[in-house]
């Protein structure tokens, strides 16, 4: 039997406690699978006295995560504190400098500092692994770096934030508006301490930036993502989209195009009958397309103690087995700097507007769209009790610039009652 693999775990919250539990419950199974005992040497958190529901007295305690990360009896530093900078980054850097392997669930840190950390880890010849950072329990990092390594990846997309999917599907089911369901999700503890990370799309964009880097061999480029959260998704749009056969999802899409690397995280319509359209509640889904595989769909729990700790343990097992691959799939010093795409690929759009109910109003809108080069695929006007007629239009594929031009021109027609809504329809 080889030497035990000794962990130092910083962060004993949801994920950290989950990892301690798995190591305690499945010690024999982990040894059988890796050929090594997996042990915990030391732990760290802010409060030493908090009851965390697991026995911790057998592990040394460190107040300072940096001290934990550099202990002689730690082979792998497991960073489960969170935060893109601060102690998480300082301790990760210290661990790498001390020749320790690092496992982290921290997508914010990787999205901001992934390139520098990867270069440091590869120079120090240690592993930096992060299966838990993207879509919790779904083994998507392994899928991209290993299972699909023989593919030229053409597109990665998916629903990568469970809280947003919970809010959107609860709005659909209940007919309640965004503010009411946001309050419900917050009350249930589903949102990050800073909810803007979830509903602003930032958390999901962190994950997309990491997947993009692996998929396309490019440096992580969070700033290159076109980002819009779900705060402006209204119950009216959810209901109208359903009527036209669609669901609204906070959808991340990354694809390499002739115009550069297109990375988007924004509310989109997807066909209601598609796997993404049927995704309910806090579940995540990632769709990966490659030249040989065509399409792979991964679906599973994107958060929570068990699923996220499960992903951390996958990394622990790989390190115990001696498996070593570059942090983002290819050596960090060969990752290229991506050019963000100047425009997005043409797509059909959903337009919702209120029109003053007088002769020629609809004709004016149709003319504006035609002049902007936007062709109408389907249109529906609803009965109404007040003076504004609700109108839905689904366009044929159009450039986003054409849609923007049309929306601007509509403002001058004098037939709009309120601002129109435009949402991209993603073809799957
Ligand atoms: P959490 O429940 O808030 O736990 C954070 C832990 O870190 C706590 O134990 C806290 O100590 C400790 N901590 C914070 N600052 C510290 C410091 N300066 N020094 C020492 N310890 C410190 O967070 P979590 O949900 O487990 O998330 C941990 C990481 O996993 C984050 O990067 C998160 O984004 C990622 N992640 C979480 C999930 C999930 O479902 N929760 C899913 C995927 C990824 P105290 O307990 O004493 O306050
Ligand atoms: N807030 C995140 C989510 C947690 O809802 O998906 C997992 O990263």
Describe the structure.
With 428 residues, this protein is an alpha/beta fold. It folds into 3 domains: 5-133, 3-Layer(aba) Sandwich (Rossmann fold), CATH 3.40.50; 140-301, 2-Layer Sandwich (Dihydrodipicolinate Reductase, domain 2), CATH 3.30.360.10; 349-424, 2-Layer Sandwich (Alpha-Beta Plaits). It has helices at residues 14-25, 27-34, 65-69, 86-97, 107-124, 140-147, 162-174, 178-187, 196-199, 202-216, 235-243, 305-321, 361-371, 400-410; strands spanning 5-10, 38-44, 60-61, 76-79, 101-104, 128-129, 153-159, 226-227, 246-257, 260-271, 283-290, 294-301, 349-356, 376-381, 388-395, 421-424. It has a 6-stranded parallel β-sheet, sandwiched between helices. A 6-stranded mixed β-sheet has the order 8-10-9-7-11-12. Strands 14-15-13-16 form a 4-stranded antiparallel β-sheet, with helices on both faces. The chain starts with a strand and ends with a strand. The chain binds NADP nicotinamide-adenine-dinucleotide phosphate and L-homoserine. L-homoserine binds next to helix 7. L-homoserine binds at residues 136, 161-163, 192, 198, 203, 302-303.
């Amino acid at each position: 039997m080889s030497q035990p693999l000794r962990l130092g775990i910083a962060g004993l919250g949801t994920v950290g406690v989950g990892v301690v539990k798995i190591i305690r419950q499945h010690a024999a199974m982990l040894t059988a699978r890796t050929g090594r005992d997996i042990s915990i040497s030391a732990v760290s958190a802010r409060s030493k006295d908090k009851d965390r529901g697991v026995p911790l007295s057998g592990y040394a305690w460190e107040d300072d995560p940096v001290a934990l990360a550099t202990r002689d009896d730690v082979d792998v530093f497991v960073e489960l504190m969170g935060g893109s900078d601060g102690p998480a980054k300082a301790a990760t850097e210290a661990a790498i400098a001390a020749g320790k392997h690092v496992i982290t669930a921290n997508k914010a840190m990787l999205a901001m500092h992934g390139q520098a950390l990867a270069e440091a880890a590869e120079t120090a010849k240690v592993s930096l692994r992060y299966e838990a950072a993207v879509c919790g329990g779904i083994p998507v990092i392994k899928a991209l770096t290993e299972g699909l390594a023989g593919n030229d990846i053409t597109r990665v997309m998916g629903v990568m934030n469970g809280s947003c999917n919970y809010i959107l599907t609860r709005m659909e089911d209940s007919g309640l508006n965004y503010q009411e369901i946001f309050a419900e999700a917050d009350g249930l503890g589903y949102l990050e301490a800073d909810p803007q990370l979830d509903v602003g799309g930032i958390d999901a964009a962190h994950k997309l930036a990491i997947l993009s880097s692996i998929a396309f061999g490019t440096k992580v480029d969070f700033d290159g993502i076109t980002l819009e959260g779900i705060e402006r998704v209204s119950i009216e749009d959810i209901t109208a989209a359903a009527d036209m056969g669609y669901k609204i999802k906070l959808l991340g899409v990354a694809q390499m195009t002739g115009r550069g690397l297109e990375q988007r995280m924004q509310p989109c319509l997807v066909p209601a009958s598609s796997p993404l359209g049927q995704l309910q509640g806090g579940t995540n889904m990632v769709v990966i397309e490659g030249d040989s595989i065509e399409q792979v769909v991964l679906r599973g729990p994107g958060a929570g103690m068990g699923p996220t700790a499960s992903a951390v343990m996958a990394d622990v097992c790989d390190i115990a087995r001696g498996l070593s691959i570059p942090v983002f799939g290819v050596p960090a010093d060969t990752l290229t700097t991506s050019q963000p795409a100047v425009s997005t690929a043409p797509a059909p759009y959903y337009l919702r507007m209120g029109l003053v109910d007088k002769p020629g109003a609809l004709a004016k809108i149709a003319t504006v769209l035609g002049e902007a080069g936007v062709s109408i695929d389907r249109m529906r006007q609803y009965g109404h009790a007040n003076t504004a007629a609700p109108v839905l239009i689904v366009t044929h594929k159009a450039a986003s610039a054409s849609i923007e031009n049309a929306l601007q021109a509509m403002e001058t027609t004098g037939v709009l009652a309120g601002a129109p809504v435009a949402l991209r329809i993603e073809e799957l």
